[in-house]
Predict the 3D structure of the following.
Amino acid sequence: MAEQYRVIGSQKLKDMTIFSKVKGNTGTNRGYSSDVQLPGMLHCKALRSPYSRADILSIDTTSAEAMPGVHLVMSINNYPKLFFNQLVFIGQEIALVIAETEEIAKKATRLIKVEYDVLPFAVEPIEAMKPDAPVTVPVHPFPFLEKPTDNPNVTTYSYAGWYSEPNEKGICTKRTVPYDYHGFGDIEQGEEEAEVIVESEGFSYGLQHASIMETGGCVADAKDDVVDLYTHGYWPYVTRYLVASKVGIPISKLNVINYNNGGDFGSHVDGGQEPSNVGPSYNVTMVIASLALQRPVRYFYTPDEEMMYRWGRGGCGSRDRYGFKKDGTLVFMDQDFYRNYCTGDAFIGINFSKFNGCSSGLKLYAHNCKHQKLTGYHVYTNGPGHTGWQGFGCPEAHFPVNVTMDMAAEKLGIDPVEFQKINHPRAGDHWYDDCYGWTQGVGHWMAPTGMDKALNIGAEQIGWSSWQHPSEKTGRIRHGIGVALAMQNTGGEDLYSSAIVSLTADGSAILYANNKDAGQGAWTREKAITAEVLGIEFEKVQVGAGETKHLIRCGWQLCSSGTLTQGKATYDACMQAKEKLFDLAAPKLGVNPEDLDTKDGVIFVKSDESKKMTWGQLIMSLGPRSQDWDIVGYARHQVGPGPTPQDKNVNFISLDVDTETGQISNIKCSMNICIGKAIFPRAVEGIGLGVHHALDAMVGGCAIFDPTTGKLLNDTWVDYTVASIGDSEVYPNCIEYEGDPTHPYGASGCGQATQDAVAGAFSNALYNAIGVRMKEVPFTPDKILKALGKI
């Protein structure tokens, strides 16, 4: 294998020493919400639905309420806005018991008597799509986004966008009324222009769990009418607003404490939402319980309960039809895609944001393609609770795109890597997206992508020069290699963050902000940016973060957007503080502000470094009554139209297949992340290793249901397959280049798209090995043997 870490870029980037010195996560380490232990704390356990679908006819909680040690039982009887009488998946909350201990609460749940009307259900999407399938979802909560079809379990994403051509300013307009599909151009015209058309269908991606360390939950601590809420999630200020508004208390009375997170990779994006009339469930219910009891209350899922939620993948069908010129130039893309949504999503409300251009070829292959159409369908089932997860809807949608492109390369007789070089995105490309369904006019164009470099490095690392057509391969053990591309939004329009930086007399700095550290070292990154801008040592930067009552507001932290939103706000705040520093020091040193620089807490004249003064000398010279005693910078950054950096990578897979047993072995993955500039290089490499989240599904890590009951059969970490470092070799390459203009250091997003191309690259490698297209994830031995005609 080639070297693991490549740096490609200008000398300027290589000379930035602070970033290269950052070795480990040294941000705010104040524990996790689940670690919180408070005096007098009560505990909560849930009674959950044993049925995939049922109506509750009655609930009797009197025996549970009478049990010694029980303080409160919450159900539809006394909190009708918090619970449903319609149950739509196994594990849905029916009642909550708050007691002195978890054991007492758990015993009390067994005393609750519930009368059910058990109803027909469908947990597999293929069953839910049949004309005579039972209705899986009673009410769709977003009728303005969901358009019914002839099947009540299937809806289309109606708030799609058909875009115009970009005008002279690069602005593309979108129809302002609900539309049936995404896209631009004219598919019929594209069919006339194309010389070769490639069609494929029948792709599916099994329902996959977000295998994370920290389970869902919170601790609520009411003191009179003020509540401290210790919780995780991606938007402390949004959580504060949602919970306060649903509970009915002033926002100022709720303090969301949000320190660390156990590496959830997006699966806590809901911030505690379960099927509930009020939104974030455990946050809301525990705040209500704590206010009612005036004691702290703790509610965290067990690992078994966690398996009832956090399912973050699920593609159940597609139809792809693409047209090309004979030289490999892509002309049009016409796609139908069906996504599996557990019915719990209909109440949680995460589903509507997952059909957009970033999950399809609308962005990834917009360089040459002038005509695109994507019709998205939701298929609702009675499976377990869904949530966001790394890739956020893209891995299952990228899968058919990348395989169909590989099929086209073969039909055109072009090497797959060379074929990708013809069509991959480049700086300046216009792209079209409707990420969250609300933007009416967009003006996005591609920032530098680095994909040419990534294709070359990955091809060398994986041994692409040995590529052979599958028809040339013989023997029992057959080797295959495959390539696929990925591109995804890094956050999206309207996301924002703020920062305050305070310079102190001893030459150190304090950064105040509330961007969420989701476990990958966000505050290490922010400390590095602060130190770099101010010219001080990394250790001299302190971070104040994690409580909404003390700190400034930040917005939604989605799709690994922190480097772009919080990073830019931090940079701008530091620059403002430095400008104030120079404005104050300039008259004292007899020069203009632009003649000054600072390093290690010393301000000096650039042309004569003997003329200098420390930050402390400057601050002390201002006098105790000076309004400038605290030298502070403040900035707010919001993502908007313009040159847009993307989370992007090129993925190569190498593997061996035993054609007699169907076993896959010797899996190697070259993960080439096009990062622009790595602010925290070790974290980027770690995110590359996180490709195992997608490799889980390739080797069998998907849900298995009992069709007679709907029960999840592999509902423990013993039975659910999780890919480990022993199952594959992963080589993360951080591809640096003179990067994206939207960030002061040229950083691009990183953290989402490492999952997106894995299924396509894996399937393409399997085809290269055995000559049969594998279209159903997971790629288990029985499917391989069936494809080979051996069973």
About this structure: DSSP finds 21 helices and 35 strands in the chain. The longest strand covers residues 330-342. Residues 123 and 382 are 5 Å apart (CA to CA).
